[in-house]
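Can anyone check this?
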Amino acid sequence: MVGDSHSMELPDWGRLRAGRGRLRGLRCIHTHLSGEGLTPDDKTDLLLLRLDAMVTIGVDNDGFPALAHTAALRPANSDGEGMEFLVPLPPAQIELDFQAWVYDLEAELARTVGTREVGAGERAILVSVTAGRTAADLESHIAELHELARSAGVDIVDVVTQTRPRVDPKTVLGSGKLQDLMIRAFQSNIELVIVDQDMTPTQARNLAERMELRVIDRTQLILDIFAQHATSRDGKLQVELAQLKYRLPRLAQRADVSLSRLAGGIGGRGPGETKLEVDRRRTRDRVTRLERELEKLGAQRENRRQRRGRRDVPVLSIVGYTNAGKSTLLRALTKADVHIANKMFSTLDPVSRRLRFPHAREVIITDTVGFIRDLPPDLVTAFRATLEELADASLFLHVVDASSPDCERRIETVRGVLDQIGMQAPELLVFNQIDKLENREGEALARRYGGVAVSALAGTGLRTLVERAEQMLWAEDNGRRERQGGLAGLTQA
């Protein structure tokens, strides 16, 4: 390959020696006319192309070779450095068995990759940009993204963050941090990059092309979790609808391989619809069909709710942040065999059970999908039919993970989503998982917010919860009885 004093274009070698832990089998040796040694571009090319070595040879004022700088990839050391640099020497003074050196490096890389357990999940790096957020907010967001990835069955190997006022409009991260990310991805044998911010189609495409890896954002990760956990017909249809709405604006990013029209006008018409147009039309048709099916299922649920309403049975709806322990609470109160798991969004489909209160009173208690910060709009829209179950609630049991360091923000998030979908009902805050706290911190937290403290797993505080719920559900009946009793006493007097 021959270039000029500014650049040199390397060919695409495809999947030549593309196995894990293997180098390309090619080395790049080129001159630098200004004695700059190894530039950032040289290091990036070494990494992206997985070359055996990158060698730059300087040129002195007489045009003769000056120092040769050599770099090669190696497993990361304790300082995180993933490249080996040889001492710069004039080319004539280099005494090195290059082939043996490269074989040793490749064997070391292969041993590092070989430590992966069989059957482990995809190896991923989490990426987040502060974009004006505080350090505490960033830490909270990363922790939540880590939990989402765990729920999806992903093995998080590393976390990359960058402090900057806003995300880069092209690649999310700045160029320097992006290079660092690519080096870490190579060193750790990464298969997937998960970005905390929702990416535009352009950002997603640019990152994927630069890194030659699958790159997804937070919304895609949540959609994947929903797809794993959907079991009912309603749930599967709603997940598919949300996925299609998310993908529709991103189909245009494949336009470069989909264009087949010629110039417009007589004699210049193309062979018909492009592949992009066909994909869009099919996606829109599928979205319309899914929306019709969900409308029918929604009408059936409405009929069930009307029949339930005619029996005048109060409804308790369990709401809350995802993985706060809502299903565990339902099981503890009703002894029902419902699915529980220490994962986000393990419950997607509404679950309703009967619960008998003291004084021979009965209620319907319903568990619904959990909420999360910045819930994707398409998910809210797709799951509106499921969330309509909340419309008949006589009382919201708002379950809060008392052990969460940002429980106040989570409370506001849930309330915000309920306001967004227009659901209103009296609320009883239930601070769950107090068994993870010490020195009656849970009870103090509940008193501060006027709620109740429970441990659904240990069965602590459930009697108090039932009593408070009964008081709130039948407060009007109790007041009427008290007033009637007072009038009877006055009449007797």
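Reply from J.R.: I decoded it. The radius of gyration is 30 Å.
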